[in-house]
Amino acid sequence: MDDEAQFMRRAIEIAERGRNRVMPNPLVGCVLVKDGEIIAEGWHDHIGGLHAEQMAIADAEAKGVATQGSTAYVTLEPCNHFGRTPPCTEALLWAGVKRVVIGADDPNPTVRGDGASALEKSDVEVESGLLAEECGEQMSEFMHWCQNMRPEVLLKAAIDANGRVDCDPNEPAQRFSSPESLEIVHALRADSMAILVGVDTVVRDDPSLTVRGPDIGPRNAPTRVVIDPSGRIPTDCKLLNDAKAPTLLIHAEPFELPNSDAEHVERAILSASEGEITIARILDYLGDRGIQSLLVEGGPNTWRRFLAEGLVDRAHLCQSPVELSGEGTVFSENELSSAGLKQIREIDVGGDRISHWRRED
């Protein structure tokens, strides 16, 4: 069992090489083992590329190593359907793999145990559930979407030494997080399929909401989502005028907005009550579009709406030692804990204190 766990942990480790690049597909790793030794490795590297099992088999071929009679340790149940690539079950059978150890069963409606069943019908020994929790955690956004048809929500907030989110509204906005903390923000964006803000944040900050730094490969840039029920978004803002990423405006009713017919801009009209669109309705809509991971960047009113509806799964709170001027809005850890989130770790980054939070089940 210890050796088996070691092989699966290696599969989890190499699966990370596809982070930021494979979505909407999940991170998956695979190792082929023969006579107690790893003979080949593979991972899903980028959207449209080989799946982990296929890469591992190709790795063995490149090394001139025979795969007949080997055992495959794979973090997710092999697929048995045609997508961008042929079924991984067929690749494993072709390679003569006689035993497959699976970390997490695939909850995707197109799979749901069919991969394991297809292998067993072909006389391949199949075992499931080895390090299932660790494997599922690595692909949590994919698992959450398959089970709930809504994106997993990560709330990202930054506050100053006194808990202020911003300086006085009559003063220009100030950036107060460290460069190192900002690098982490771009990593969070790269690991998200969509980034959401309320229209007040666009009016105040005119953000780009793009990924700068991490390599996201050939996948699409994260969709920039703006909750804008009454059509208040400035027509000269970056989100409407640059095409670095798609922009989705969520309205409560149709509005005439110059520049909103640009190719990269899409508009959705969602049902509202007294001009307010519920967060649950927005998440249902995004989930129907296949968005599995949502980074909620701002502002405080939007954070509080997500928290009030109990729809934040994780949170990233960065507190700077800088003290902003004026009497800006205050946000605190108490708001996270009151909404059912629990702090799971805390780190120091460039002088900032970053705490990570997760919903308690």
Strand order of the largest sheet: 10-9-8-7-11-6-12-14-13
Major sheet: 9 strands, mixed
Annotation field: number of helices = 12
Class from helix and strand fractions: alpha/beta
Count every beta strand, where a strand is a DSSP E run of 2 or more residues. 14
Uncertain regions spanning at least 5 consecutive residues: none
Q: What's the overall average pLDDT, rounded?
A: 93
Give the helix proportion (percent range): 25-40%
Note the beta-strand portion. Answer: 15-25%
Write the topology of this structure.
Layout: H1 2-15, E1 29-34, E2 37-43, H2 52-63, E3 71-76, H3 88-94, E4 99-104, H4 114-121, E5 125-128, H5 132-138, H6 140-148, E6 152-159, H7 179-190, E7 194-198, H8 199-205, E8 223-227, H9 238-241, E9 247-251, E10 265-269, H10 279-288, E11 293-298, H11 300-308, E12 314-319, H12 333-338, E13 341-349, E14 352-359
Parallel strand pairs: 3-4, 4-5, 6-11, 6-12, 7-8, 7-11, 8-9, 9-10
Antiparallel strand pairs: 1-2, 1-3, 12-14, 13-14
